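Example 4.3 (complexes with small molecules)
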Amino acid sequence: SNAPVKVAVTGAAGQIGYSLLFRLASGSLLGPDTPIQLQLLEITPALKALEGVVMELDDCAFSTLAGVEIGDDPNTIFDGVNLALLVGARPRGPGMERGDLLEANGAIFTAQGRALNAVAADDVRVGVTGNPANTNALIAMTNAPDIPSERFSALTRLDHNRAISQLAAKTGAKVTDIKKMSIWGNHSATQYPDIFHAEVGGKNAAEVVDDQAWIENDFIPTVAKRGAAIIDARGSSSAASAASATIDAARDWLQGTPDGDWVSMAVKSDGSYGVPEGLIYSYPVTTKDGSWEIVQGLEIDDFSRAKMDATAAELADERDAVKGLGLI
Ligand code: NAI
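Answer. The structure with NAI bound is encoded below.
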């Protein structure tokens, strides 16, 4: 039988964790034949709640779950992990400014980057879901100098999936008929969901839609502000969909994108599409055997250019802020 794949999840007692752990344990990531060992990190006051979640994992009797370890020390929990899903983060509290938020998260992702650098498996891949995801990934990456930088990514797959769903609803197509969606930039309200290269049933999506006003005034804001709409409706932030996207992103990273399609992932910019080098910027990427490549050669018109530049500028600001705090 196969050796278990060790998957770390941070913030495991949180909302996303409550959905994510059960999907991971039941084989959604690597299928029914690959056992998973879960390594769960929480802050000390949340460990008791996490013990309860582990009791529930036990009670599912998942055949793919090889074992579970919990703790509050990243140097123990990240030991030998092949995949680290960094979900836990400090939420913005009352009266907290953006700088305070970056600083609080900076402390978390500095420590976790160092711990991964010291103890993770040689093949580790690190996916950051906790917000501000792109900049948290930048901090972790910078603090893990021995791990190749292309092993870090931040989650924009939820935005990607939201965009597919909106385009499917608009065109009456099935989600499986929609290919080549692109999310550019930051996982924030400045992100740019782009359908100009997308396809609906093999035809260019923007031509099928043929409604620039819908793209500008409906599609883009609906996708970019979907998180806030869910908070308004549900009273708490998206969790099951974020967990599902976290799995989709990790699965496709490890197992590859199908021919004729791509996914969106925030990865270290190499300067492609005029994005400043070194930012963790969401691009359309193809993946194969645990590696990704930015899709090249897409034509970018003035409308798209302005949106791609605006979200890059926001990421450059965040980078400068954490640099100013000495976190990178
Ligand atoms: P939550 O507040 O329910 O859970 C977060 C958990 O992280 C808590 O249990 C907390 O104790 C833990 N935590 C805090 N600091 C930690 C540390 N240093 N080490 C380990 N665990 C720590 O939040 P939820 O709803 O599960 O969301 C988690 C994060 O994901 C948030 O930052 C949220 O903004 C982000 N998110 C990102 C999305 C994306 O698309 N990239 C979508 C939705 C949420």
